[in-house]
Amino acid sequence: MLNNIEKKKYNVNNLLKIFNLNNLQILNIKGPDSKIFLQNQLTININQLDNKNYLNALHCNSQGRILTNMHILKNSDNYYKYIIQKNILDVYLENIKKYTTFYNIKIFLNSKEKIFGLSSINLETIISKIFKKNNILSTKKTLFFFKKDIFLKFCYSNYYYFLVLSQKNIKVFMQEFYPKKIIYIINNNFWNKFYMKIGFPIIDVNHNCNLFFPQQSNMEKFHAIDFNKGCYLGQEIISTLKFKNKQNKKLFLLEGKANFLPLYNDLLEIQNHKTKKWQIIRGSIILKSLVLKSNLIWIQVILKNNILKYSLIRLNRDQKSIFSIIKIF
Q1: What is the pTM of this model?
Q2: Bridge partners of residue 107, in order along the sequence
Q3: pLDDT class for 128, splitting at 50, 70, 90?
Q4: Which top CATH class is 1-246?
Q5: How is the beta sheet containing 66-76 ordered, strand by strand?
Q6: Are 182 and 120 in contact (CB under 8 A)?
Q7: Domain boundaries, the chain
Q8: Under 8 Å between Cβ of 109 and 27
Q9: CATH code of the region 248-329
Q10: How confident is the model at residue 216 (pLDDT cuts 50, 70, 90)?
Q11: How far is CA 296 from its chain centroid?
Q12: pLDDT value at position 160?
């Protein structure tokens, strides 16, 4: 939605885009044992969190399979925040309940906290106005505090994106710095597309929790596993897979056309290069499907790593569908 903007006067591509990411959820963990709890549970070294950087992390089960991935930050001493997919919130909390009872911590949601995404060609100018500095994008810092709002910085192919954890109306807040030049978009598909493009796995279906290993998810690329830290949940199996190099699956990004949006339980088929016959791909895990335009679809999926990049793939339920592999992570 354009706010007081005449389309003829402004180039939409130059405007600040604000995305209401209501598909994401902020979890707050607070208490004397919050640090040791997270250190014993997550795949990262919590001691590396400071007021300059957030980290990507995984919470796995005792068998080393991923319960969820997250962005995590230290808000203050004994107080941490992390961001997960809202759809799996109940399953996540139920899974960790058996561990939280042993620690003096409080896990809670704050209904006033919202998550927004920012994107613009002129993002450097906008962000510099907010922080009164010109080195926000050049600095290695990825975490910024501004009044009651928290900014997480992402960089991909020289383009910058920000997640904003806010307790106020972000639209009013941003208009203070960028008056009348805002596009406010409720649809969160833009951020999902960003995640899929960079190979950040989207775990937002209960069925996909506790299903696959970190090495199959591409989360190593995001430094979400510290192989030098001490014990944590699932550590022995995760380390064994790493040092024995047992990675039989990878994260794939597919692009193609179909008559419907694929679901997590849809079967995929691959065409045999020699016989041209189609056969079901066993063990595939569809994480996310996204409509880009018309019937053009992206699928984020975990497949066996022996599948060649030039392979053709289709949906078992739609034999007229066709997908190509645009990236193997």
Answers
A1: 0.91
A2: 29
A3: confident
A4: alpha beta
A5: 55-60, 66-76, 79-85, 24-30, 106-108
A6: no
A7: 1-246, 248-329
A8: yes
A9: 2.40.30.160
A10: very high
A11: 22
A12: 76
